Every structure is written in structure tokens, then in C-alpha cells.
Amino acid sequence: MRRALPLIFFALGLVALGVAATVMLVPNAGQVTTSNVGGPFTLTNQDGRRVTERDFAGATHLVFFGFTHCPDICPTTLQQIGDVLQALGPKGRDTKALFIAVDPERDTPDALKTYLASFDPRIIGLTGSSDEVAAVVKAYRAYIRKVPTKEGDYTMEHTALVYIMDAKNRFVSALNLTKPADQTAADLAKVM
Questions:
Q1: What mean pLDDT value characterizes the chain?
Q2: Half-sphere exposure of residue 148, counting CA atoms within 13 Å on the CB side?
């Protein structure tokens, strides 16, 4: 028995260490974790009015970076976002999608207004100075880069992620647009 006592104490010590590690390292059930994605901004909407992130608090909203001269990804994504908003039905009545222009040189409020007229009216175009746009891109941990083309023009590389932000302007997750709109809407409704 004397030889077994050290082994028993050792085993009890391992169990206590395992319990302590579990308590310290596993987050509490139901605890909401937030990330450092998003943050304060001041931009100009397609109607020429200055807005901040606070104007979109109070309801789940989407954020997408793009530009009006984008040949395919941006218009396709905006159409998909519109389809998801439609599929939400009455639950999505207050849901907005922010289209933040990464090409402030060409994407003026008037250019955004004309461009977005083809999409769901809940999609709001936002632009600003180069510094204001760069600050929002940084806050959302997105990526943009101006790329010259052979024709002497340029295009914009950018993050094509659609961010889901909650009513308190906190990042929830990315919107999965690989599913049909009704399934994506059902997934979105779960986090609203």
C-alpha cells in the first residue's frame, strides 16, 4: 500500500491539473467572443450625406468592399446579396448592405448612386477620401491594391468577403454565397 500511495497522489495530481487546464483554457459555454474586425468610420453615402458606423447599429448588416468599374465579381456579389435580402422576407426588412467603394478616385457619390440603381435598394454605397477608405479597409482587415492595366487605365484588387456585422457593429462571420439564396438567407437569419 505504501508503494501505491505515491502513484495514487500522482494520478490525483494529473486529474487536478487536467481539470484546472480545462477550466482555464476552454471558454465558458454561451460566451460570445468578438474579433477586431470593423470599427468606427465616417464616409459619404450615395446621396452625399456623411454617415458613420453608428448609423447602421441596431440591426444586422452586411459589408462588402468593391468598386463600380469591377467587371464581374462586384456586380455578381451585389446581385447575390440582393437575392439573399429578398429571400429573408419580412425578417430582412431592416437589413442593410454597405458597399464600400475601394476606388474613391472614380467612385463618387453620384457614380455609386447610378451604379447601385440596378441592385436592391437596401444596398447603400459608401465612399470617401483615400485616407478615409484606407482607414475602413484597415479596420476590417481587408485588402486593396491599385493595379495598372496595359491600356493605361487601372483596376482594383480587393477582398471579396461579405462581412456579417451584428446590431452592435461587431463582426459575426462571413456570408456564404456559394449556397442558393434561400439557404444563405436561412443561415443569416440564425445570427440576426
A1: 85
A2: 3
